[in-house]
Amino acid sequence: MSPRYDDEWVAGLLDADGRLGGTSPQDLLARVGLRRRQTVIDYGCGPGFLTLAAAAIVGPLGRVYAVDIEKKMLDLVDRRATSAGHRNILTVFSSGQRVPLSDQIADWAICVQVLHYPQQLAGRIDMVGDIARLLAPEGRVLIVNWIPQTGDDGSRLSAAETQGMLRQAGFEPDEPQPLGEKQYTITARRLAAQRVPG
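Above: the chain's sequence. Below: its structure in token form.
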């Protein structure tokens, strides 16, 4: 693996204390309302930190699409899913543009610490628009972002900025909630009557 995807880096991505302020993936997903038999897209799944938890919650009659731009991460998700006995996870390679999945395929999308990666605002708006495309009317998205800090590189989004992008993409965002001391969560519902960008 390249240095960015070495064992130490992957271990950091699987560390609940570092990534979710000590909240377990299962607790976070159950708290926002994931349920059995639902279809979920883990958008930017990495090594499957939330993918496997989502698969356990939706059960064998549900489905989780694990989407990432790094094939090594998708291979790791496949291995971890097989080891855990999850047969309801499908890995999906994305070039970073439009995810190669059908419109309105999912009840939920999960986007954890991913929205800050596009350097330009337009790329971030496109990402949220593609998430909206993938969700059925009334479908929901969970966003987890880092709280902007003095001295950071400027890529982090405030809760207000995230809410604004969600509204622009046809979502009705809820109020942000703290997640540990360094992050916040926002859930949002895709409005049924809203035309989805793209």
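The chain is about 35% helix and 25% strand.
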